[in-house]
Amino acid sequence: MPILEALYNAPRRSANQIYMLLIILLILSQDSSFNASIHKMILPGVPWYKERLLHQTSLGSLMVIILIRTVQYNLSKLRDVYLHTTCLATLANMAPHVHRLSAYASQRLVSLFFMLSRKYNKLAELRENKVQLAKSNSIEGNSLSDDVSTELHIYTDFLRLVLEILNAILSYALPRNPEVVYAIMHRQEVFQPFKNHPRFNELLENIYTVLDFFNSRMDAQRMDGEWSVEKVLQVIIINCRSWRGDGLKMFTQLRFTYEQESHPEEFFIPYVWQLVLSRCGFSFNSGAINLFPIDPPVEKQDTDGGVTHKHHNGDLNMHGLLLDP
């Protein structure tokens, strides 16, 4: 809870602090027992979450909400690829173990795909414009086109990863997550533009298999009056019991791990000393502190005392699917 609260207040945190908190959550998400247990712990309330009243929400649902909120913050402020990847990797590790994800968390998950798709569409349009500029044999135009293409490729990977997360929930935990099914049905139009995309079509086939199953059950129901959220959800819950996964293509389950770089102390020792100097209340002569026994090339420290260009200090390894470089 303190980690999630700190991420909720990300604008008050330094980039280094955000990275450290996300790395901790990623490491925790590598443990399947952790992923299962966080959905069993029900929180009576989350007083520090201001956008919405969260009542009787599982810790797992709250973690999904905060990770997605962090992606939103990064998209608008930091724009750091590694931060996006770490959040999505943690969600991917959690996905097969999701149990009774809340309505709000489920909605945010589908909205995450929509949010990233809007960024993708803007980049695709921008690349098309740059390509037209490059046709004039302008070196600058070619350079700009390459930059946009690289960013577009990155967002293609992000969108695929969100689809992998949704697929993992539908493949391994659909009967336990009627709210996820409802959220996908409610916003099914956001997937339509990508149905024939070569990177997404197999994953979307699974989503449309689920949509076809539940839409047909809805059509078979005779209702007096208008459909309400409660009535739709009730139909979904009833038909979740008869869901057998027929027609779904099973993909290799994603598993992200965090690995240290070869010299992690170059980041962690200065970072820990920065915390000591700023929080302990003792007075130190900072000029006399010798962090390393030798004098290797040391990166400049930023104004917060952290190390610049060394914030992530590790790589994400994914077994089963490799993101293109």
Automatic annotation (TrEMBL):
Pfam families reported in the protein's UniProt record: Dymeclin
Origin superkingdom: Eukaryota
Keyword terms of this UniProt record: Lipoprotein, Myristate
UniProt keyword Lipoprotein present: yes
Example GO biological process: Golgi organization
GO CC, alphabetical: Golgi apparatus
PANTHER family: DYMECLIN
Family: Belongs to the dymeclin family.
Protein name listed in UniProt: Dymeclin
Organism: Quercus suber
Gene: DYM
